[in-house]
Design brief:
This protein is an alpha/beta fold. The protein folds into two domains: about 240 residues, Rossmann fold (3-Layer(aba) Sandwich); about 160 residues, Rossmann fold. It is built from 18 helices and 22 strands. The protein has a six-stranded mixed sheet with strand order 6-9-10-3-11-12, sandwiched between helices. A six-stranded mixed sheet has the order 18-19-20-15-21-22, sandwiched between helices. It is globular and about 70 Å long. The N and C termini lie far apart (about 55 Å). The C terminus is likely disordered. Bound molecules: adenosine-5'-triphosphate (ATP) and magnesium ion.
Length: about 500
């Protein structure tokens, strides 16, 4: 029988980098099919060939047995393929609804564009996600005002408005927090029940196992296996993804640093979207910050780093009052900060990798007023890349040419200089594959072991349970819960995040 979607011999090379090396992929109608593989294994490339964003060097693609020749995204859309990518494509200044109808073959009446009708038709797609927006989808709000997870949801709605028969979700859950993920998963299930083929990539294997029927695993630009999900456990998936390497070990390190000194003490901190937050972190401790999407987690970290203005409260580092009103002052007080949004804060995507990775050293140069030689710049960039094990073709290529996960690794490498006393990380591990995540966990734990106090915000509850000693749960800018020791489980985190939500106004 011919599969509904069939891709054969997909080849794509970027200069010296082979992104797809003869990959095959096939899937059926009504199926949720996961595409798995380490960072840089070619998943996005394969999907972009299907959606017409990337022109392959060679590929045969057929839908329903009919050969498909896509010369651009419009051709793919016409064939019923809609996609959501790792990098977002919304227009900041337009409202949510206007973004949804942007680029849809416009509804026409008597030959005129009918915006009103297009907007009305888009509305149901948005309403399906109402719960994930806390009840009221912000239809008329400009996209610029939305939190990252909300933008991601709008992006997904935009794909749904196109009523695809194949929906491609590339890391669509990476910036969503647990409550929103639930809503998305139920929409996906509903689409599949109606016969839509949903192909999705995710590095969160728990999600993959809950939602998909089959998974295809890629490695080094090739497809290595297609397996039925209910019969394949997580260990096996990891083994297929990373080859012979063992799955990341989970060590139990609970209750370690209780006797060490308090490094960071925050009392009654207030800022935009942060209300009366108090906590302390000891040297050697990793403190997590969780909760639903957009509850002030990012603002809390940005305030500590002097990016947002502090309105009230005190911050003590090793017992001394610190009032950082700029990042430079925060750095001087021993803080390091890894920003959450690689596209806007983390990397200059169009600039060469070497410039991106050497940026912190360039800062050093301006202080000392010494020119940094090209050789030093290269060496420093290389060191940063090695530190986080980022895979790239050449340091002269733009940062945007790295795979999504490798870009994220570069952000971490770039923003973690020498030996900071306090490390603030804003959801730094999204989109990073299981193997690399284990390495970065080690890096974070290593910083703590060297005596740093680490504050890590994460949208992934599993990550919080695996890497943190203790987790604060935030809701509407306040700390509403704290979990540690045996209490610190994914279920408890979700319950704690939702409980307040349910009891709220
Ligand atoms: N525009 C580009 N220019 C140069 N190289 C590229 C470009 N796009 C992708 N690559 C390279 O192709 C390889 C495959 O990348 P791809 O984005 O398909 O990986 P991926 O499996 O989606 O990874 P991730 O899990 O990190 O998103 C990587 O080595 C990447 O650096
Ligand atoms: Mg990708």
């Amino acid at each position: 029988m011919t599969p509904f979607l069939e891709m054969r011999g997909v080849h794509k090379r970027y200069g010296g980098v082979v992104a797809a090396d003869g990959a095959d992929f096939s899937a059926e109608r009504g199926e949720v099919h996961a595409l798995l593989g380490p960072n840089g294994s070619g998943k996005s490339t394969l999907l972009k060939v299907l959606t017409g964003v990337v022109a392959p060097d060679a590929a045969r693609v057929a839908i329903d047995g009919r050969p498909l020749s896509v010369r651009g995204p419009r051709d793919a859309l016409r064939a019923g393929v809609a996609a959501v990518y790792q990098e977002l494509s919304l227009v900041d200044e337009l409202s949510v609804l206007d973004n949804l109808v942007l680029g849809v073959e416009p509804a026409r009446r008597l030959g005129f564009l009918d915006r009103g009708r297009a907007r009305a038709a888009a509305r149901p797609a948005l309403d399906r996600f109402a719960e994930a927006f806390g009840g009221r989808p912000p239809a008329e709000a400009p996209v610029r005002d939305l939190a990252p997870g909300e933008r991601q949801l709008v992006e997904i709605c935009k794909a749904l408005v196109r009523e695809p028969s194949i929906l491609v979700l590339d890391e669509a859950t990476a910036s969503l927090r647990s409550g929103q993920v639930e809503v998305l998963l139920s929409v996906v299930r509903e689409l599949a029940d109606r016969g839509v083929l949903v192909v999705f990539t995710s590095h969160r294997l728990a999600e993959v196992q809950r939602i998909s029927q089959r998974a295809t695993i890629m490695r080094g630009g090739r497809t290595v296996a297609t397996v039925p999900i209910p019969q394949t456990d997580e260990g096996e998936l990891v083994r297929l993804m990373v080859g012979e390497l063992a799955a990341p070990k989970r060590e139990d390190r609970r209750g370690g640093p209780a006797e060490r000194q308090v490094r960071l003490k925050v009392s009654n901190l207030a800022a935009d979207r942060v209300h009366d937050v108090s906590f302390s972190v000891r040297a050697g401790e990793v403190l997590g910050v969780g909760g639903l999407q957009g509850q002030g987690q990012s603002e809390l970290l940005a305030t500590l780093f002097g990016v947002l203005r502090r309105r009230n409260g005190t911050v003590r580092v090793d017992g001394a009052d610190v009032h950082a009103s700029s990042p430079a002052q925060a750095v001087a007080a021993g803080f390091a900060y890894v920003p959450g949004n690689r596209a806007t804060e983390g990397l200059l995507l169009r600039r060469p990798l070497v410039e991106n990775l050497a940026l912190p050293s360039l800062g050093r140069r301006s202080r000392l007023r010494l020119p940094l030689s090209r050789a030093r710049e290269l060496a420093s960039a290389r060191e940063a890349a090695v530190r986080v094990n980022a895979r790239y073709g050449s340091l002269d290529e733009p940062a945007g040419s790295l795979s999504g996960g490798n870009q994220q690794k570069a952000v971490v490498g770039k923003w973690l200089p020498g030996r900071p006393r306090i490390v603030l990380m804003d959801d730094p591990l999204k989109g990073i594959d299981v193997g690399a995540k284990a390495e970065l966990f080690d890096l974070v734990r290593g910083l703590a072991a060297d005596g740093a106090a680490v504050v890590l915000s994460s949208s992934d509850d599993r990550e919080l349970t695996e890497v943190c000693d203790r987790v604060l749960v935030m809701f509407e800018g306040r700390v509403t819960g704290e979990l540690s020791g045996p209490e610190l489980t994914e279920d408890a985190l979700l319950a704690s995040a939702l409980q307040v939500h349910g009891n709220g106004p």
